[in-house]
Design a protein that fits this description.
The complex is a heterodimer of chains A (267) and B (349). With 267 residues, chain A is mostly helical. Chain A contains twelve helices and no strands. The radius of gyration of chain B is 25 Å and the shape is elongated. The chains are: A mainly alpha (267), B alpha+beta (349). Bound molecules: adenosine-5'-triphosphate and magnesium ion. The site of adenosine-5'-triphosphate has 12 residues of chain B, from strand 2 and helix 1. Chain B: Pfam families: ABC_tran.
């Protein structure tokens, strides 16, 4: 076999894998424009009625979307805040206790969500927070902490913590030090941490299934119920909306980054 | 009233006394070096002065006021760290302006002072660079300008040159002397390099195991140390046994008398004599010189001066640094005569 054919073969395999990764996702787009009233590919023409039905108050897509957005934004803010406070504190003073707390913080990565869910159901029912925004928020914050913490800790890892000592000797008080010295250096880490926390909350399903019922329904939960007890193509429509929104964000980010890199190298 | 007084400062870490009853009086505008081996407590003293650690007991007085309870940010002491600890997200100007912004100076005054500091450390052309775009020596200058910009009462420097190579270090030593002269700020300079301390300071305090063993001008400490530790730590030195009976000293396998300023005037059964390698000459010397015979056991070529390892008849060994014109490699293994002026010999009891 010549090097050329081998190369072609390799490319074919790579493309096959990429298609395998992506095609099943794309299938929701044709399904979402089906003219039938059940999940299927369009047969006698296309129809956008399922997109219209997403806003139908009876179906509850809009409130669940709003709930999820609310929970994800609040989770991103809180998890980033807590993780940043801990990461910065541990960075400034070293010792045995930061390592101990770090282990505790990362434990959601280790403990299977299903086991955590069992525990959380008991705790939340004791304090009557089952099926509420606050109950979901607490759980999502805990589950997002590891990601947020790892992202922020990574941005602190190559900073010299004597900067803090230097800033104090130059007359800066703690708030100034945080705002003018630490924050500008860890801003990318905070953004990454907030993004990861948002995503974690946005598509959390395992624990959420256990701690919510009909009162506070998140989007993943709504999708889950719709897939188990109906075959409404609205499901494909919401999936397509999410898919297109995600792609738009990713493409925009890649373009922006490309421009940033070009501006940087031109300098 | 004294400017800065450290009064019996003690700082313990568990059973370890990092500072053990340290007292030091500093005059305004002085350049004082804190010199000592690793772990002797120099950094601990500096951090206590800056307010970053709380001494177990003792006082620190600035203009007669105890400042022990004052937070570091209220002390107005500049601090230069070994690794510089510059702010990576700020430009050179931004770093220098930081303490001024913190003090809420107005923009015009800040700009003027930053310009002035940039000129002082010779970084005008690099004002907009970020710290990572600077060489080690340039970063050092930024750290100095930043710590001096707000007009600190005292500048504390913790081994600021130890990360630089030798050429640059010597250049920066001159630079630091100049900055000290031009700003008039009191410098407290930590180093474990005795050469650096000797060439730069008005006064040296020598640390050993958390104590100041001796302090004084570089000349005084170098020419007449009163402790073996200082005699050994500052400059190279040789030690041999000696004794004094009826005013006459025995040592180096010969007998001699020492000038008054070297001699305490009392007989002693046993004492330690010291003589620096550079003060030993080749041959019998002049009248009144101490001359002695020693065997050359090792010879190291060293450019203008060769280093000879000598052994006396008594078995004691020491090192001499002899002009390269006078001895060559063929001296190895021979018994030769050397001499030293009596004033160069020191006595430790
Ligand atoms: N945070 C600390 N906890 C416990 N011991 C400490 C601490 N900081 C310093 N020490 C100890 O105190 C002693 C003095 O340390 P210090 O840092 O002052 O030495 P130094 O003279 O600056 O040495 P070097 O030249 O190596 O910097 C050392 O024995 C050190 O191990
Ligand atoms: Mg030190």
């Amino acid at each position: 076999m010549s090097a050329r054919t081998r190369n072609r073969l390799l490319m074919a395999v790579v493309w096959l894998f990429l298609l395998l990764l992506f095609l099943p996702v794309l299938v929701v787009i044709p399904v979402s424009v089906t003219d039938k009233s059940y999940l299927s590919l369009p047969a006698d023409g296309i129809s956008f009625e399922h997109y219209g039905s997403l806003t139908d108050p009876a179906k509850g897509w809009v409130p669940s979307f709003r709930n999820s957005a609310l929970a994800a934004i609040a989770t991103a803010i809180m998890a980033t805040g807590i993780a940043a406070a801990f990461a910065v504190g541990a960075w400034i003073r070293s010792g045995w206790w930061p390592s101990a707390v770090r282990l505790l913080m990362l434990s959601p990565l280790i403990v299977p969500p299903i086991i955590y869910a069992v525990g959380m159901v008991r705790v939340l029912s004791k304090v009557s927070m089952l099926d509420t925004f606050w109950g979901v928020l607490v759980v999502h914050v805990v589950l997002s902490l590891p990601m947020a913490f790892l992202a922020i800790a990574a941005s602190l890892a190559n900073l010299d913590n004597r900067m803090v000592t230097a800033a104090r000797s130059l007359g800066a008080r703690p708030i100034t030090i945080f705002g003018r010295v630490i924050l500008p250096n860890i801003a990318p880490g905070l953004a990454a941490g907030a993004f990861l926390a948002f995503i974690t909350s946005w598509d959390e399903i395992t624990v959420t299934l256990f701690i919510t019922a009909r009162h506070f329904v998140t989007l993943p939960r709504r999708i889950y119920t719709s897939i188990t007890d109906s075959i409404d193509p609205a499901l494909a429509a919401i999936a397509a909306v999410l898919l297109i929104a995600t792609m738009a964000v990713l493409i925009a980010q890649t373009l922006l980054k490309g421009r940033g890199a070009r501006a940087g190298s031109a300098k | 009233m004294s400017f800065l007084v450290v009064d019996s400062l003690t700082m313990t870490y568990g059973p370890l006394r990092a500072l053990n009853d340290v007292s030091l009086t500093v005059k305004e505008g002085e350049f004082i070096s804190l010199l000592g081996p690793s772990g002797s407590g120099k950094t601990t003293l500096l951090m206590s002065l800056a307010g970053f650690n709380k001494p177990t007991s003792g006082r620190i007085l600035l203009d007669g006021q105890d400042i022990i309870a004052r937070e570091p940010e209220d002390r107005d002491f500049g601090f230069v760290f070994q690794g510089y600890a510059l702010f990576p997200h700020l430009s050179v100007s931004g770093n220098i302006a930081f303490p001024l912004k913190v003090r809420k100076w107005d923009a015009v005054r800040i700009r003027a002072r930053v310009e002035e500091m940039l000129a002082l450390v010779g970084l005008k052309s690099l004002a907009d660079r970020k710290p990572r775009q600077l060489s080690g020596g340039q970063q050092q200058r930024v750290a100095l300008a930043r710590a001096l910009s707000f007009g600190p009462r005292v500048l504390l420097l913790d081994e600021p040159l130890s990360a630089l190579d030798r050429m640059l270090r010597e250049q920066m030593q001159t630079e630091l002397r100049r900055l000290h002269r031009e700003t008039g700020v009191t410098f407290l300079y930590v180093t474990h390099d005795q050469q650096e301390a000797l060439t730069m300071s008005d006064r040296i305090a020598v640390f050993e195991k958390g104590k100041i063993v001796e302090e004084g001008s570089p000349t005084r400490l170098f020419k007449s140390p009163t402790t073996r530790f200082v005699a050994e730590f500052l400059g190279e030195n040789n030690f041999v046994k000696g004794s004094r009976a009826n005013g006459v000293w025995q040592g180096f396998g010969t007998s001699f008398s020492l000038p008054e300023q070297r001699d305490s005037g009392e007989d002693a059964g046993s004492a330690t004599l010291w003589l620096r390698p550079g003060d030993i000459g080749f041959g019998t010397g002049r009248d009144g010189d101490i001359s002695f015979t020693a065997k050359v056991e090792d010879f190291v070529f060293g450019g203008t001066h060769n280093r000879l390892a000598l052994r006396l008849r008594s078995g004691e060994t020491f090192v001499a640094s002899i002009s390269a014109d006078l001895v060559a490699e063929d001296a190895l293994g021979k018994d030769l005569t050397f001499h030293a002026r009596p004033e160069a010999v020191g006595v430790l009891r």
